Amino acid sequence: MQLNLAATFAVARRTAVWRQVGTAAGVTTVPHVARGVPRRLSSGTALRILHRSTSLTTVTPLRTYSQTTRVPGGSATRTCWKCQCETSQTSVLCENNSCSAIQAVSSTATYFDILLGVPPTFTIDTAQLRRNFLRLQQAVHPDSVSQLSAVERQLAESQSSWINHAYSTLKDPLQRAHYMLELRNAAVREDDNVVDPELLSEIMETREAIEAAGSEAEIAALREINDEEIKETVRMLEQAFGAEEMEEAQHLTRRLQYLKRVDQTIQEWELGPPIEEYH
Fold first, then answer.
1. How far is 264 from 95, CA to CA, in rounded Å?
2. How much is the mean pLDDT over the chain?
3. Nearest to 174 by CA among 222, 265, 237, 226
4. Are 96 and 85 in contact (CB under 8 A)?
5. Cα 108 from chain centroid?
6. Which residues pair with 67 in a beta bridge?
7. Which residues of 61-99 are buried (b: 16+ CB within 10 A; e: fewer)?
8. CA dist 10 to 155, 204, 222, Å?
9. DSSP bridge pairs for 37
10. Using an 8 Å Cβ cutoff, are 38 and 46 in contact?
């Protein structure tokens, strides 16, 4: 199979605006690289091959040692387990300067509350996110709490795990989109079956082009196209979330996770091992 870069360029540059049009029909042919022979797959099987994505791991909040209450004005506070003073629900440390005890992971605060101090938003300051993450991690690092009580060391361990997961989620556009959709009860799941047939066709053709690539120059051209598609999809996600268009945000999140899978396949090509089917 010869690589047709012109056709691949046209496929990859198709509009990223989705339309919900029903499920794909018929059959799709993709190369079976392990044997070097094309193998015909049903649309359902092709969809399952492409529909893998990284699922979010839920961190169970530790609710021991604190109580939650509401104060006038609607701000959430809780009682510090150590000094019994009121402290913000979003504070990792007690806000009483003479105490500063490590608090339990909040059961109500979001990743945005803790790491950025803002309501959930797709458009974030990643440099500020990094600075806040490092500051909080230093406060709960094992070296920083080694002389504290067993209670605080346990709380520090829980906070550290929670903060790490929050940071890894927010810094990545795809995981951030997934998280925001979950907060709005509009999560995109790995086993969702509604897919734009045009997108399915585009991804399959792109995968075939990658598998047929015979040089680094060809794979570099495909990587450049896919990188641009990722940037454009992230830009459109910013607009969709900004306008509270959750259905569009769901469509674009699915598209972004497919583009990320293409990026992974390109990396596998560059590393040398053969591309395998995803089951």
1. 44
2. 74
3. 237
4. yes
5. 21
6. 79
7. ebeebbeeeeeeeeeebbbbbbeeeebbbbbbbbeeeee
8. 53, 14, 12
9. 32
10. no
Residue 59's CB is within 10 A of a number of other CB atoms, namely: 16
User: Tokens standing for 122?
Assistant: 């797709």
User: How does DSSP classify residue 274?
Assistant: P
- Under 8 Å between Cβ of 143 and 120: no
Other beta carbons less than 10 A from residue 138's beta carbon: 10
Q: What is the DSSP letter of 109?
A: -
Q: How far is the C-alpha of 253 from the C-alpha of 234, rounded, in Å?
A: 9
Specify the pTM.
0.69
CB 47 within 8 A of CB 278: no
- Give the Cα-Cα-Cα angle 278, 170, 134 (nearest 5 degrees): 125
**Residue 147, number of CB atoms within 10 A of its CB:** 8
Residue 88 β-bridge partners: 77
DSSP, collapsed to helix, strand or coil, labels residue 5 as helix
Residues ≥6 apart with Cβ < 8 Å to 42: 27, 28
Please state, in angstroms and rounded to a whole number, the distance separating the CA atoms of residues 4 and 270.
19
Residue count of the chain: 279
In which band, very low, low, confident or very high, does the pLDDT at 144 lie, cut at 50, 70 and 90? very high
d(CA 181, CA 173): 12
pLDDT at 36: 31
Segment 215-252, tens digit of pLDDT: 888 889 999 999 999 999 999 999 999 999 999 999 99
